[in-house]
């Protein structure tokens, strides 16, 4: 199956046969460079935090992955809107690829946050509203992927997903605002609020390079996921030609009584 | 464009299965067209495409002058579809259903009552919830809900199924009346003797394509039906 | 002009049909209300009233109960639309999608408000709650309910056609409504306990939520009904 | 007691409505009996009573030697019913359904496959979930699930409905075969031409009672059908 | 002898069919589990964690969540049996009613135990629970689940044929299961907090409940299936 796919695709001029390209290789190299810098500064060069000690270093992973995930969800929302307007496969694939990457990054954030929590708070999870809303957000996009996974006509599926992508994104700012207010109302500052100011120069540099690295990795992954999805669609198109052939054959009298 | 329905190489997928695999079909105004063919041939799918309910994945489709590949919506309110499903709220009574569907179609409540009358639905049944009706009674109510929309294109999926002899004659009469008054009728049927009498023309669909008129019927249709082509 | 009247006319038609269906099927409220009261009772069991937990948690439990009951109501409301090809019939009907959406939202809001009214009585009796700040409570109830219906109708219609709708709808809807839960709960707490800050910002937040989803829903219902 | 089905003044209520209002009927072993009559006459109800699914509110009913007024259970596993519903799990595939239903009826899985084959269900469809089938395909699978039970009494509600011509001939053949091998067949149908050819005897039911054979057909059945009574 | 073998053979056939259906429809656990986790999260909102309420209430919330998820699972499981005349077909099939009942109970128990296993992980992480007295916890989980399935299958079948089943089932079932909720909650509390009294009486109570309903169900399923 894979071989037929690549063979017939290579007969089409300029059709991509893999998910890599010159551009993505360059992008990958740059992302790698920033990753190395971020690791060097984050793990080795920057000083430990006054209160949190070396565990502060988790932040250089925690925050970039959140930001990358938010970016991905935003891309999903924009693509969803564009899909409903333009109705092209491009926007559908972009939206769903971004949602997958976003869920991935967000899950990573929650996992490393939980681990961080274990070392700083002594528990994996607290009923901190931000953590709770994070979990809720994740489930919202898991719902998106669940709908995506339901077999359906591609256009129908695309429309369903686009609607969820648009509706869900509205929730992100509302959730975060509501939570801030909730906190602000009757409780003192929380752990999340207390640590981020007062970062030293190398700490800041580590943070920014980690942020850039996180976003580059996210984009790199997104491009590859998109292309993989695109190729999968083309492969199923090839399956379609064959299915059409078989379907028409049903009508030949030789086939006899078919049901 | 004089054809009411014009399909060219129309391909329609259900899931990933090409239920229609390249259909070419033209239907003239005022025509009564019979779709016949073995089970699973694609008749129901073809009617769904003409109603604008099932999208094409490739090919051309123009119905009632509207291009289905670009905007399917405009067609929908101008066709009447009688499908395998009843299209009725099971918990509402017969008249409540008719009132709702006639008003939804911008007809009056009186149109709905007239349609019930036309279909010979006994007034004893008016206040019964639809789920209490027998199969044939329900089919009549569905038919009434369809005709009170005054559709320009009638799409009927096995319109005779479940009806008693009186009902069958009634349906034949309705189709002929509709065609005479300028509407166009496409219907799928397996009851060839009756169907071919009322149809102006018949096409055979099999394996998702329409067989050329010259080609003999496929093996699963023993009697070579007469095709009174106009 | 005609177009606008059309949308609201359609909405009225749909809302009246829904309420009629509700009456005929003799179900929704007749059974959802007992269900909701039951959930309240179960909480009372689960939370062991002696510890004073229950009293503190009353607003939260009230809104969680409303949320679950809404999922039930939505499931039923859209389940009826998905039977026997009704969704196809609606697509063919020529009713404007925005009208159908607004009609469903209207009917749902009325049903849910009725439910809440009964539930408030239940809470008053079971949890021995004193009600203070009635206008604020009313504002919160109306805006929160509108938000639930507005968001719920979109996902209800989306899930209705799927064979897995019983489970998909809560999965999609409950996370979406988490902010409503937070805001309504906090707002009611404020109102009941006379906390320092006024609860009106919460009502405003709920209003914004409802508005955003109403707008979004009116636009999204067209592609939803037609292609999904 | 030689009659396979013996009903005397049988009254059956659906809700409070007397769908059967005093039916007298005897069916002999090996007979193929056609039930005809207008929509809502009570044909489906009568078949349900014979299957032991619908209880009598008064009258006598003895089916396959078992008295239905006292114990309906014994009859159920000995009859095969093909109703308006498909009796299939929509999410399971065709073969999964057949495997389940054949084993539930104490038949073997091989019986199920043989039945599918007998009904001409193409092997392409075996792995499809039932909800993806076309109306006629689904009907064939239901029929297969019925015959693999090897019922002594066949109760068929519009067995031809939805089937293509090949399928119709197949069903006629199956009924004749069943009768020849000692089973008894009762079927309701509105397709009188075909049905009267295959039936040994026809009775007309209308308004919940069986009309005496001498009486002319009721008004809603225009063509006075020939009644080849044995 | 043959009769007995027949009942268990029938039960096996039904249970295998149910689990297959579960796999094919790719729904139940795939969506019920996220739903259950979501219910846990919603409680966290409703109960405002800072007050320490949540930790105290963990066992109660766990079992309320299991209860809601069971209703969902039951609804789906019996919804599938009521479609397309399947119930009629089962009545005609010759399968013994007790066999059908035991088969449904088996499949439900397996599904619910799986759900609880995942949920326990969720609770462990989310509510930071330490597990003490594992054997007692296991005994409680198994007996409580069996009780839920045993009672649920009876009412599931009863509600399945009615047009109002979505709402009727929780209404009938939840009051019936209130004792299970109480016993399982208290038992878990005992086990987790090492309260003075041993928790085994609770497990025994749950066991008795399960047994009573299993026996009752095996007998009641015949009239239920045949005449309802
Ligand atoms: C399960 C555990 C955790 C989860 C799910 C989690 C989740 C998140 C999320 C979603 C954000 C982005 C917030 C935004 O919208 O701006 C965030 C930011 C942040 N988190 Fe965590 N987190 C967890 C644990 C922790 C821990 C243990 C710490 C430190 C002790 C921490 C420190 C931070 C900091 C410093 C930020 C960025 C500053 C901010 O925007 O407030 N997180 N976390
Ligand atoms: N998901 C799917 N996978 C494979 N095949 C499918 C799928 N869904 C539908 N089909 C096939 O598509 C075809 C649909 O045909 P359609 O319902 O249009 O037939 P029809 O001509 O109306 O038949 P009938 O006379 O039985 O009503 C059937 O052959 C069916 O098996
Ligand atoms: N709750 C009810 N109240 C009043 N009448 C009812 C009720 N339920 C069923 N009926 C009537 O009982 C009759 C049932 O008839 P049945 O379904 O046996 O008819 P049938 O002969 O099979 O008709 P068809 O040819 O249309 O399938 C119908 O006339 C129906 O209107
Ligand atoms: Mg069809
Ligand atoms: Mg009938």
Automatic annotation (TrEMBL), chain A:
Give the signal peptide as a residue range, or say none if absent.
none
Enumerate the transmembrane spans: 26-46, 58-78, 90-111, 131-150, 162-182, 202-223
Keyword Acetylation assigned to the entry: answer is no
InterPro entries per the UniProt record, alphabetical = Cyt_c_assembly (IPR002541), Cyt_c_biogenesis_CcmC (IPR003557), Cyt_c_biogenesis_CcsA/CcmC (IPR045062)
Q: Where is the composition biased (Polar residues)?
A: 1-11
The protein's GO terms of the molecular function aspect are:
heme binding; heme transmembrane transporter activity
What family does the database annotate?
Answer: Belongs to the CcmC/CycZ/HelC family.
This one is known as Unannotated protein
From TrEMBL, chains B, D:
Q: Which GO terms describe its biological process?
A: cytochrome complex assembly
Source taxonomy:
unclassified sequences, metagenomes, ecological metagenomes
Q: Keywords of this protein's UniProt record, alphabetized? A: ATP-binding, Cytochrome c-type biogenesis, Nucleotide-binding, Transport
Molecular function (GO) terms listed?
A: ATP binding; ATP hydrolysis activity; transmembrane transporter activity
Gene3D superfamilies assigned: P-loop containing nucleotide triphosphate hydrolases
Q: ABC transporter domain location, by residue? A: 5-227
Q: Which SMART domains match?
A: AAA
Q: Does the record carry Transmembrane helix as a key word?
A: no
Q: Where is this region: Disordered?
A: 209-230
Q: Which CDD domains does UniProt cross-reference here?
A: ABC_DR_subfamily_A (cd03230)
Q: What is this protein called?
A: Unannotated protein
Q: Does the keyword Ubl conjugation apply?
A: no
UniProtKB/TrEMBL annotation, chains C, E:
The UniProt function text for this chain reads: Required for the export of heme to the periplasm for the biogenesis of c-type cytochromes.
Subcellular location, record wording: Cell inner membrane
Which family does this protein fall into? Belongs to the CcmB/CycW/HelB family.
Keywords attached to this Swiss-Prot or TrEMBL record, sorted alphabetically, are: Cell inner membrane, Cell membrane, Cytochrome c-type biogenesis, Membrane, Transmembrane, Transmembrane helix, Transport
Q: Which GO terms describe its molecular function?
A: heme transmembrane transporter activity
User: Any keyword Transmembrane helix?
Assistant: yes
Q: Which terms does the UniProt entry file under GO BP?
A: cytochrome c biosynthetic process; cytochrome complex assembly
Provide one Gene Ontology cellular component: plasma membrane
Is 4Fe-4S tagged as a keyword? no
InterPro entries linked to this entry:
Cyt_c_biogenesis_CcmB, Cyt_c_CcmB_bac
Transmembrane feature ranges: 27-47, 59-80, 101-127, 133-156, 168-187, 199-221
Protein name stated in the entry: Heme exporter protein B
Bilayer topology reads: Multi-pass membrane protein
């Amino acid at each position: 199956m894979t071989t037929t796919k690549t063979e017939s695709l290579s007969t089409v001029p300029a059709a991509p046969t893999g998910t890599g390209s010159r551009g993505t290789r360059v992008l990958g190299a740059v992302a790698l460079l920033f990753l190395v810098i971020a690791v060097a500064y984050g793990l080795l060069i920057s000083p430990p935090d006054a209160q949190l000690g070396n565990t502060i270093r988790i932040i250089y992973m925690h925050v970039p992955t959140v930001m990358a995930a938010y970016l991905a969800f935003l891309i999903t929302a924009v693509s969803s809107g564009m899909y409903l307007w333009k109705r092209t496969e491009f926007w559908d694939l972009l939206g769903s690829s971004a949602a997958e990457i976003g869920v991935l990054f967000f899950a990573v954030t929650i996992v490393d946050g939980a681990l961080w929590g274990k070392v700083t708070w002594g528990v994996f999870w607290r009923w901190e509203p931000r953590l709770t809303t994070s979990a809720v957000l994740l489930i919202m996009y898991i719902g998106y992927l669940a709908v995506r996974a339901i077999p359906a006509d591609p256009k129908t599926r695309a429309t369903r997903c686009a609607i969820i992508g648009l509706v869900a994104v509205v929730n992100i700012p509302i959730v975060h605002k509501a939570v801030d207010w909730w906190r602000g109302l009757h409780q003192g500052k929380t752990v999340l609020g207390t640590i981020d100011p007062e970062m030293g120069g190398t700490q800041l540099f580590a943070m920014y390079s980690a942020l850039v690295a996180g976003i580059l990795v996210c984009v790199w992954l997104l491009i590859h996921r998109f292309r993989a999805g695109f190729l999968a669609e083309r492969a199923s198109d090839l399956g379609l030609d064959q299915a059409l052939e078989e379907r028409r054959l049903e009508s030949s009298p030789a086939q006899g009584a078919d049901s | 464009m004089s054809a009411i329905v014009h399909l060219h190489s129309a391909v329609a997928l259900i899931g990933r299965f090409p239920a229609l695999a390249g259909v070419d079909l033209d239907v003239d105004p005022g025509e009564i067209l019979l779709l016949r063919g073995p089970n699973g041939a694609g008749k129901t799918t073809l009617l769904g495409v003409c109603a604008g309910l099932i999208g094409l994945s490739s090919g051309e489709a123009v119905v009632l002058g509207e291009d289905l590949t670009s905007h399917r919506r405009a067609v929908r309110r101008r066709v009447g579809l009688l499908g395998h499903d009843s299209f009725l709220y099971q918990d509402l009574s017969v008249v409540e259903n008719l009132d709702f569907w006639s008003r939804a179609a911008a007809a009056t409540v009186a149109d709905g009552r007239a349609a019930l009358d036309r279909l010979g639905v006994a007034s004893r049944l008016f206040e019964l919830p639809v789920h209490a009706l027998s199969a044939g009674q329900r089919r009549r109510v569905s038919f009434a809900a369809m005709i009170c929309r005054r559709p320009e294109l009638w799409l009927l999926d096995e319109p005779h199924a479940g009806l008693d002899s009186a009902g069958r004659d009634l349906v034949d009469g309705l189709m002929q009346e509709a065609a005479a008054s300028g509407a166009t009728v496409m219907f799928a049927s397996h009851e060839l003797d009756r169907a071919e009498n009322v149809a102006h023309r018949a096409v055979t669909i099999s394996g998702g394509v329409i067989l050329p008129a010259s080609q003999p019927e496929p093996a699963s249709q023993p009697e070579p039906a007469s095709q009174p082509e106009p | 002009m005609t177009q606008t009247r059309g949308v609201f006319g359609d909405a009225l038609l749909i809302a009246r049909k829904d309420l009629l269906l509700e009456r005929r099927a003799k179900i929704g409220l007749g059974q959802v209300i007992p269900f909701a009261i039951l959930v309240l009772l179960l909480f009372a069991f689960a939370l062991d009233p002696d510890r004073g937990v229950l009293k503190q948690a009353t607003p939260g439990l009230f809104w969680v109960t409303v949320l679950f009951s809404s999922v039930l109501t939505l499931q039923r409301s859209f389940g009826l639309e998905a039977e026997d090809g009704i969704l196809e019939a609606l697509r063919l009907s020529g009713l404007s999608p925005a009208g159908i959406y607004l009609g469903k939202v209207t009917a749902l809001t009325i049903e849910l408000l009725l439910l809440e009214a009964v539930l408030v009585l239940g809470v008053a009796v079971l949890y021995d709650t004193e009600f203070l700040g009635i206008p604020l409570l009313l504002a919160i109830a109306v805006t929160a309910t509108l938000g639930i219906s507005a968001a719920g109708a979109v996902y209800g219609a989306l899930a209705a056609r799927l064979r897995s709708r019983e489970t998909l709808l809560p999965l999609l809807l409950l996370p979406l409504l988490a902010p409503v839960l937070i805001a309504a709960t906090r707002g009611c707490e404020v109102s009941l306990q006379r906390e320092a800050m006024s609860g009106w910002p919460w009502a405003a937040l709920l209003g914004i939520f409802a508005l955003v989803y109403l707008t979004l829903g009116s636009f999204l219902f067209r592609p939803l009904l037609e292609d999904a």
